[in-house]
Write the structure tokens for this entry.
Amino acid sequence: MSSTCEVDPELLEKLRKFRFGKKSQKGTSAFVLKIDMAKLLVIEDVLYDDISLEDLIEELPENTPRYIVLSYELSHRDGRKSFPLVLIYYSPPSSKPETHMLYASAKTYFQQKADLNKVFDIREAEELTNEWLREKLL
């Protein structure tokens, strides 16, 4: 499958470590990614360890899309905890149309390269709440 953007091979290795690196994980971690417009390459923006969704949405840019790979601490009704890996495509309505199109066109390719199965789209950062995500995952 071809794409408008490639994925940095170093990023794929970092994602693999992000996925499998922490067995005694506590809290939610987020790997925020962006597209380098000059190179048309998906690259790392910032990595957050043990961050709340409320703090994460405060850190997201207001006018630029991002891919967020989230290792979310999910508490089940029976007391178990799991850490599903989720891809969230964040595309604020104030994004430039050409930027939105670039991110949207590269999303499926990135999802396949990163081997991410749970994918959700949000337009407003405020949509990303614990209630919303739990509803999607349970």
Q: What stands out?
A: The beta strands are 6-7, 29-36, 41-48, 66-71, 74-75, 81-82, 85-90, 118-122.
